[in-house]
Design a protein that fits this description.
- The protein contains seven helices and three strands; from the N terminus they run H-H-H-E-H-H-E-E-H-H.
- It is mainly α.
- It has a domain of 70 residues.
- A three-stranded parallel beta sheet has the order 1-2-3.
- Helix 1 runs antiparallel to helix 7.
- 8% of the residues are buried.
Length: 160
């Protein structure tokens, strides 16, 4: 679910329609994947708590809701809007490793709600990836070829 606008950023580097198309291309052929446009369609910043409320109302039989987040996001979870309400709704977090962060960096109160994803440490941030694209550096192997082709065809991130 691409955000309309992150509350932590002044503006998005590219239009939501482009981010939506890149998601579609990245997940083509994968089963049990749904891409929602709900956040793109609502005005203003996208807060996780609003999305959680929406998903719970949409899927009232949901037993457990996991939010996929990078370790770099989890170390600042106390800054999220209405985090206490989110926790009262039973939300847990599937956390993927990020370079420069460890599980112990997460606030102790939130650690029991986290499930660490067993996988390679993500060595590059999204902003670093966008910077490489802007500078014309090779990013093949870092993103799916169909997404890279879309970025190149539409000249995305070159003026970011």
């Amino acid at each position: 679910m691409p955000a309309n606008r992150s509350p932590f950023k002044e503006k998005n580097p590219i239009a939501g329609s482009h981010r939506l198309e890149m998601l579609k291309r990245a997940f083509t052929g994968m089963e049990n994947i749904q891409i929602s446009t709900w956040e793109l369609e609502k005005p203003g910043p996208s807060y996780t708590i609003d999305t959680v409320r929406y998903l719970i109302s949409l899927y009232d039989a949901v037993k457990k809701l996991y939010i996929l987040a990078g370790m770099d996001q989890m170390v600042e979870i106390e800054k999220w809007k209405d985090i206490e309400e989110m926790l009262s709704l039973g939300v847990s977090f599937a956390v993927f490793p990020r370079k420069g962060y460890s599980f112990s960096d997460i606030h102790p109160d939130f650690r029991p709600l986290c499930v660490l994803i067993d996988g390679p440490v993500v060595e590059i941030s999204a902003s670093d990836l966008r910077e490489k694209i802007r500078k014309g550096k090779d990013v093949s192997g870092l993103i799916p070829p169909s997404v890279l082709n879309y970025i190149q065809e539409n000249k995305l991130y070159i003026h970011a």
